[in-house]
Amino acid sequence: MKIFLPTLVAGEIEFLSRCSGELKNSYGRYKFFSKAKNFEQAKEKCMSLGEGWNLMIINTKRELTYLKEVLVDSCWENKAFLLGWKEFDTIAPGSRGRLETVFGKEPEWEPKWDRGEPNEEGQECVIYESGKFHDSFCAENYAFACEQHNFIEFCEPEAIDPSDFENYSIYAPENLEDGRNWNDARDYCISKGAGWDLAVPNSEEEFDLLVKGTNCSNKRFWLGAKYTANTDEIAVDDGVYEAVDGSTEKEIFRRWDTHTNWLSSPPHNRPGETECLRMRGNLMNTKDCETDGNKLPHGWICERN
Ligand SMILES: [Ca+2]
Ligand SMILES: [Ca+2]
Ligand SMILES: [Ca+2]
Ligand SMILES: [Ca+2]
């Protein structure tokens, strides 16, 4: 239910003026704008904020929870605003058509559609309102949320020179049953012959080459190192490393994903527990070595030393 305020009285002025401003929050990779714009204008504004910036895309339930926490008790709580998805060819009310991100990629997370939404073929933009999502016309003006996305969300595959990868072998399984856990992936690499094992990025340059080789695949790829945490402090990287090629902690290049799960950013923080190193896009995290992929099959990268 919407409440309209007929006249301004002292107490309400503050409320309304708060609503006209940008929403403040504590996490620097999101920005909320209340000056209403249509989809193209809003997208342009987000992109003007710098590399990786575009309209916000919710990738996980955790990110939705973050959003709700930011909005709660502000006048944005019940405000409708634009996000970075497009929904094409609505099939019937309540039955969505093709959904893609503002970067033209397949979304990782299904929006919690409001009852009967999306409901119109001509409505190709996606609006967040009070915890639910609906489609609306892209030409209509809305407040909007921007996000600085990870590289994997906007990167585009490029032609690869095979001669750069003579000592590497990258496996990105398409089928769920072809995913492997860390040990099985390692066995596969070793079976390739003398000198082969899981890949260890020993420098930023080598890691960037692996990033190039995975070529924007949305898969996670196992790398040849294990990490055992010493502390339960978040984002502290002082645990024990064990690399398949004998590399010391200093010889293993790391670039953690501090955005996807910033509340508990990698490496993991459960003292005494060992997890395995993996990469996705141009970032890394650690994961239970037994996992072979829940919805996305785990890939792996082999290296010949
Ligand atoms: Ca996101
Ligand atoms: Ca629609
Ligand atoms: Ca609609
Ligand atoms: Ca290496």
From TrEMBL:
It comes from the Eukaryota. InterPro entries: C-type_lectin-like, C-type_lectin-like/link_sf, CTDL_fold, DC-SIGN_domain-containing. Pfam families: Lectin_C. It comes from Oikopleura dioica (Tunicate). Gene3D superfamilies: Mannose-Binding Protein A, subunit A. This is Oidioi.mRNA.OKI2018_I69.PAR.g8848.t1.cds. The lineage of its organism: Eukaryota, Metazoa, Chordata, Tunicata, Appendicularia. Residues 30-147, 165-290 form the C-type lectin domain.
